[in-house]
Amino acid sequence: xxxxxxxxxIRSLIAPFNKKGVEIEGATTFAGDLEFDSLTVMDFxxxxxxxxxxxxxxxxxxxxxxxxxxxxxxxxLQG
Amino acid sequence: xxxxTAARGDLFSKFDPLIEMRANLLASGVEDPFxxxxxxxxxxxxxxxxxxxxxxxxxxxxxxxxxxPDVIQAGKDALDAFGAGTTGSRVLNGxxxxxxxxxxxxxxxxxxxxxxxxxxxxxxxxxxxxxxxGKEDYIVxxxxxxxxxxxxxxxxxxxxxxxxxxxIEAMEKRLKRIPEGAGKLVVxxxxxxxxxxxxxxxxxxxxxxANGAMVLVDEAHSMGFIGPNGRGVAEEQDVLDDVDFxxxxxxxSVGTVGGFCVSNHPKFEVMRLVCRPYVxxxxxxxxxxxxxxxxxRKLMHxxxxxxxxxxxxxxxxxxxxxxxxxxxxxTPQSAIIAVIMPDLERGAAM
Lengths: 79, 350
Known about the structure:
The structure holds 2 protein chains of 2 kinds. Chain A is mostly helical. Chain A is built from 4 helices and no strands.
């Protein structure tokens, strides 16, 4: 799957969690810009994991702060 | 004072939002819920708190063992015979006869081959989880796990994979996605303390075993109360034989302080050499292990107390429900009856 494809799918998964309709770019952060709390993070990560059939461990999550990093990580995890 | 907190480089600046939240809460006139002092303890269920005679509903002193005469006597005898403390690690000069007797009582209580006593329940989870799950291993755990479990994960080097609370399918999916050949540890609790609900251990442990994982169950809130012999939710659901490690505490039903792990793993004793929160801390005082051992042996025959506590749980649950409170569970599942408050202010006021 190419990067654009991964990006499109992640965008559609973010939508239900993006309550304030924040404009999402590569540098958009989950904790800061999107105001995700820990429970939202868990639900969102679970949605990503199920969509791509991958595991994003907490250790890996700690390295992912923004949208761009998530796309890169998902693409890498898919191998 | 304002100058100090505003100063650049003050490492405490990160706590400012919390300090402000607390100040605002107290300004609203509520009594500080974190400054409660018990001036006198009248019984396991009554104390003078901040000058007021108070019924104790939040102590986890499930079996009332804190004032059991046999337990107290055992502690006094040990204090006289062995002194106030051990001043040493379990692996150096800190293992007394009482520590062995306490571990023997645990082995008998759980009918397991090995028992290891830690200085607190927190350290038991911290030590066992951080030690057995190494760098290439995966820990799969419930998102509502106790802080000591999370801290055990943080102290170790394993990959940490949480799943939605009590969600069997979510747990299974994650287990199946773990790379072939990696070690797997599933961490569950019998009773979860936030809502007082129990885990579907029978189903979850079956799934864990089918996927080649070892299983650790924290039975802190069920010991002495749930299961035919008070061994916990795994015993109640008839799956204790499939649990590799049971973690427990002395600071709830047992009525003192300390923690433990029991296991049938043939190599379990090596933990005493490699588990840092066990090695690098002083062992429990002789009086504490003596009270714990006496209490554990009495809990083996605590059937009446168990029935009484179930009765109290049901009565309290039904009464609060009738008053219109939102509770953590529809029916009482444990001795924790969680009342869910709509916000911080009303929670503190209660």
